[in-house]
């Protein structure tokens, strides 16, 4: 019999040398999934060490948009095409390509020409790539006020201008209305056209023709069509469809529309930018609610003594270090009496004279199971950002990565953390784009000396209208 243990010691970090030795001896040769998890565990351990730093190794500036997708940096307007929206239906399994909304020119509308097809959606199976089908969203079927459409987790989501959101079963639609299947790269003769599927000029055939309104699964009304589904059991998040409720989020059961206990989330923050909320992408069923100086990670759990009701509880909270944002305004009346007024400044006002830390981006690195947050410290008009890596389970800070370039809160920013790379894309006025790439390095004393020398040895060159900087 084992002796009773009063408390459990904190788990030790994995021994990197031991794991590398086991890998070299072929312990994980027959299971690629185990090998990948071990490799990611090693990378996380190395990344969170105190001696590990992130160094700015490459910078470029461009007059064209810069984008980052799956480990690659794209330049020169690579997204500018007709089918410009790409998303996952089922992550890593089924992807959806959506066209831009079809709009007739003003001259055609004045001439009385009608445009009934609003969007096209092409659905593909990946690994290997295969064509499932393409359907059109026709206002004769779905109505005149359709503003957007998407497919996610097997659900066709249709959004309307009055805030209405309707859900349909995409699999049932494809089974009922598909005229015939097609294989990519195969020759076809259909409706008088002869060509190769997926090849110019024939492209992809629209083989899912919806001829009548499909059965409705669910509908809800929400301000600005803000609607999300997730959690265990299934819940959805909406904002009541009135402007006075902006910034207030209702968490309700998808089964019976019942509001969860503590299901109204309102940070009551006073800021230039609104707070936002979404289901955690780690598939834990949790909810992330982000404000200018506060991040709440919420969880759904059964109400005690009432298993039929779900309540929203706090899992953990992350706060920004801030000073008291209160200013005293002094005025003098006509009689000479001095009047002092307390003015509460906005939570993320860049014009404040006090040191202000504001959360700008919150993301999740699934391979390393890390929650990443970008916080900006503002002193007057200047701003400096740092990327914090936190334990996804408890929110504990594991690593803070400073970004050496200044951060203007009035510009548009994107920050990506991908394994051992941090990438910052900035859009300035007049279509000026910048990209800063940081690489994970080991910060020894020798590295420190080299980095100090390299600060004065940065090389820049101009090519194709863009400026590149290297170290």
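^ structure tokens above, recovered residues below v
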């Amino acid at each position: 019999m084992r002796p009773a243990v009063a408390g459990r010691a904190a788990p030790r970090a994995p021994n990197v040398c031991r794991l590398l030795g086991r890998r070299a001896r072929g312990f994980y040769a027959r299971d690629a999934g185990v090998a990948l998890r071990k490799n990611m565990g090693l990378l996380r351990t190395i990344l969170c060490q105190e001696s590990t730093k992130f160094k700015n190794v490459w910078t470029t500036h461009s007059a064209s948009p810069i984008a980052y997708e799956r480990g690659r940096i794209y330049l020169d307007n690579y997204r500018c095409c007709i089918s410009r929206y790409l998303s996952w239906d089922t992550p890593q399994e089924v992807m959806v390509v959506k066209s831009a909304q079809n709009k007739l020119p003003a001259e055609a509308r004045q001439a009385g020409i009608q445009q009934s097809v609003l969007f096209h959606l092409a659905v593909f199976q990946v690994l290997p790539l295969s064509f499932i089908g393409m359907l059109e969203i026709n206002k004769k079927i779905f109505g005149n006020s359709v503003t957007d459409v998407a497919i996610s987790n097997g659900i066709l989501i249709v959004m309307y201008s009055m805030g209405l959101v309707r859900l349909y079963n995409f699999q049932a639609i494809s089974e009922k209305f598909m005229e015939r299947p097609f294989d990519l790269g195969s020759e076809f003769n259909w409706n008088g056209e002869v060509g190769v599927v997926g090849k110019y000029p024939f492209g992809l055939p629209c083989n899912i023709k919806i001829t009548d309104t499909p059965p409705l699964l669910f509908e809800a009304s929400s301000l600005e069509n803000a609607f999300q589904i997730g959690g265990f059991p299934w819940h959805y998040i909406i904002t009541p469809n009135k402007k006075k409720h902006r910034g207030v989020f209702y968490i309700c059961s998808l089964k019976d529309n019942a509001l969860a206990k503590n299901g109204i989330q309102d940070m009551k923050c006073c800021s230039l930018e609104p707070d936002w909320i979404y289901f955690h992408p780690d598939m834990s069923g949790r909810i992330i609610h982000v404000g200018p100086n506060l991040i709440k990670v919420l969880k759904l759990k059964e109400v005690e003594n009432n298993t039929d009701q779900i309540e929203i509880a706090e899992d953990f909270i992350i706060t920004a270090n801030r000073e008291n944002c209160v200013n005293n305004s002094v005025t003098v009346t006509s009689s000479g009496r001095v009047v002092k007024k307390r003015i509460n400044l906005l939570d993320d006002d860049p014009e404040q004279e006090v040191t202000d830390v504001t959360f700008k981006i919150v993301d999740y690195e699934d391979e390393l199971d890390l929650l990443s947050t970008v916080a900006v410290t503002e002193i007057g008009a200047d701003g400096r950002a740092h990327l914090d890596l936190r334990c996804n389970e408890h929110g504990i800070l594991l690593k803070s990565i400073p970004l050496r370039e200044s951060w203007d809160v009035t510009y548009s920013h994107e920050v990506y953390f991908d394994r051992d790379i941090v990438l910052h894309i900035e859009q300035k006025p007049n279509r000026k784009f910048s990209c800063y790439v940081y690489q994970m390095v080991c910060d020894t004393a020798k590295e420190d000396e080299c980095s100090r020398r390299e600060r004065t040895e940065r090389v820049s060159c101009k090519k194709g209208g863009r400026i590149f900087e290297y170290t």
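The CA atoms of residues 355 and 450 lie 32 Å apart.
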